[in-house]
Amino acid sequence: MSSAERAATLLTQLEPEDFRVLTAIELGMSSHRYVPVEEIERISGLNPRELEYRIRRLNNMELIYGRQQPYVGYILNYAGYDALALNALVKADILEALGKPLGVGKESDVYEALTSNGERVAVKFHRLGRVSFRDTRRKRGYVGGRRHISWLYESRLAAEREFEALGIVYEAGVSVPKPIHRNRHVVVMGYIEGFPLVDVVSLDDPEGLLDDILRNIKLTLSAGIIHNDLSEFNIVVKPDGEVLIIDWPQYVTMDHPNAELLIRRDVENVLKYFRRKWRVYRDLDETLKWLLS
Ligand SMILES: Nc1ncnc2c1ncn2[C@@H]1O[C@H](COP(=O)(O)OP(=O)(O)OP(=O)(O)O)[C@@H](O)[C@H]1O
Ligand SMILES: [Mg+2]
């Protein structure tokens, strides 16, 4: 079972005191690599006996992880962070139930879910620095000088950025999942019935589909946004042939110093894919000129 599924299953068993401890550890993680028990006690306001009981419980549920040396301290596991986000989304009357996985990527897990009014949505859990704590630190280095909280901080930041980008381009009329809500590292958005372009095996009108994609890129650029990871993996095609562009956390704005280069790379990825797979030929420079006109 994945951490999100585990968190969703445990949600009904968790009591207010459990959430107080999880929240205290989350807060403590902004200034400690492992949050000392005394600090958890101070923030949660629970008495030592109660706290000991809660910590043991949460540890058994594998929502937190502890170490004994050089002092006794705890951190959240991904499932613990997932539980905090899911609980907030349920409390806010956004989510009702988590469904089946829609896609498990390198840097996220996406699930189907139901809202409290029965709407089907997609829930994306951002997971940065998933490898291991040691690997994360080695590969990613410092984030704002606060390396010890990097996975928590980076995952939340990715969700914030994705939600922000979705909001801007959705308003601008770009075909993207509708942004619904964000909490911590989790983005709730409209559910798309369809397949990533990379998995599509037959197309009635590849020329027309490419035109649709380019029109959406043009709208995105007009809104001042560059997707910055555009490819056949992040374009979804619905059964009716409509295209949607997904996966926005790495977006940059048009005032980025390398804007031109990044736009070129996005467009080149798409044109190359259409040339190779569907024998649709478009000139890169001509296309770029039209996109920026
Ligand atoms: N709104 C949505 N509705 C339905 N399915 C979705 C939605 N968003 C994402 N998915 C599914 O989840 C997969 C991964 O989503 P996304 O590309 O946003 O995450 P990712 O972190 O980039 O994954 P990867 O690391 O593999 O690129 C998509 O390929 C798609 O199958
Ligand atoms: Mg992707």
Taking the alpha carbons of the first and last residues, their distance comes to: 49 Å
Global Rg: 22 Å
Q: What's the arrangement of strands in the largest beta sheet?
A: 4-5-6-8-7
The whole-number mean of residue pLDDT values reads 93
How many β-strands, per DSSP? Answer: 13
For the largest beta-sheet, the strand count, sense and barrel status come to: 5 strands, antiparallel
What order do the SSEs take from the amino end to the carboxyl end, as H and E? HHEHHEEHEEEHHEEEHEEEEHH
Beta-strand share of residues? 15-25%
CATH class of the largest domain: Alpha Beta
- CATH T-level fold name of the largest domain: Phosphorylase Kinase, domain 1
Helix/strand structural class: alpha+beta
| Poorly predicted tracts of residues | 132-146
Fourth-level CATH superfamily of the largest domain: Phosphorylase Kinase, domain 1
Bound molecules: adenosine-5'-triphosphate, magnesium ion
Number of domains: 3
Shape: elongated
Number of helices: 10
Question: Can you name the CATH architecture of the largest domain?
Answer: 2-Layer Sandwich
Residues in helix, %: 40-55%
Quick structural overview:
The chain has 293 residues and is α+β, with helices and mostly antiparallel strands. It is elongated, with a radius of gyration of 22 Å.
Task: Give the SSE map.
Layout: H1 3-10, H2 16-28, E1 35-36, H3 37-44, H4 48-60, E2 64-67, E3 73-76, H5 78-91, E4 95-104, E5 108-115, E6 120-126, H6 133-140, H7 150-171, E7 179-183, E8 186-190, E9 195-196, H8 206-222, E10 225-226, E11 235-237, E12 243-245, E13 252-253, H9 259-278, H10 284-291
Antiparallel strand pairs: 1-3, 2-3, 4-5, 5-6, 6-8, 7-8, 9-11, 10-13, 11-12
The structure holds adenosine-5'-triphosphate and magnesium ion.
